Structure formats: structure tokens, C-alpha cells
Amino acid sequence: MHLQASEGIDFADGNARCVMVVGIPFPNVKDSKVGLKKDYNNSAAAASAATGRSAASSSSGWCGGRPAGAAGAGAAAGPPRLLTGDSWYSQQAFRALNQV
Fold it and tell me: Could you tell me which residues come within 8 angstroms of residue 78 by beta carbon, excluding any fewer than 6 positions away?
């Protein structure tokens, strides 16, 4: 049984002043879209590491697209700097948790 109160509930007075998280809503690991996304991120992260453009060396901390200094026209387009598949998977779970 899966219960969810995504829209929120309004309690009067001093009731319900605590939020308890019982589980973290990880995406279904058996979903084909999740598997494909993890595989894509792993291959893009490996390609970035092979070209020396790791996300850890980024000054902006942003994990996608071009590096901070390559915004101009004519910049060499390399593989995107993405999170690894496992990092992306964990990030999706905590992103869903923060939206509750």
C-alpha cells in the first residue's frame, strides 16, 4: 500500500509540527528509462574523464553543458560533463524528497 499526501494538509492549532521521513523515494531501478539514463551518464562521465574535463575540475560546480569559459561562439563542443549514473540516481531521490 502506497500512501502519499503531495498537496499538503492544513492542521489547526499546534498539531503536526514535525515531519518524519520514513523512506527515500528512489526511482524504480528496474525502469528502462532509469537504466538508460544511468548508462548515458556513466558513458558521458567516462568520456569527460578521458578528455580531462571532469566535473570535479569545474570552477562553476554545474554538472552539464559547457565549462564556464566555453560560452562563446566557436568553442569546442566536447562531451557534456554529467554526474555519474549512481550520483544522478541518488540526486533524483533527494530532489523528490525536497519537493514534498
Answer: 47, 48, 51, 53
DSSP H helical ranges for 10-84: 32-50
Q: 81 with 58: CB under 8 angstroms? A: yes
**Would you give the DSSP letter of residue 7?**
S
- Kindly calculate the radius of gyration of the chain based on its CA atoms and give it in whole angstroms: 19
The tens digit of pLDDT for each residue in 6-65 reads: 566 666 666 666 767 678 888 898 999 999 999 999 998 888 888 875 444 444 444 555
d(CA 53, CA 46): 10
CA distance 41 to 84: 5
Residues comprising the chain, all counted: 100
Please state whether the predicted TM-score (pTM) of the whole model is above 0.70: no
What distance in Å separates the CA atoms of residue 16 and residue 3, rounded to the nearest whole number?
17
Looking at residue 5, its amino acid is: A
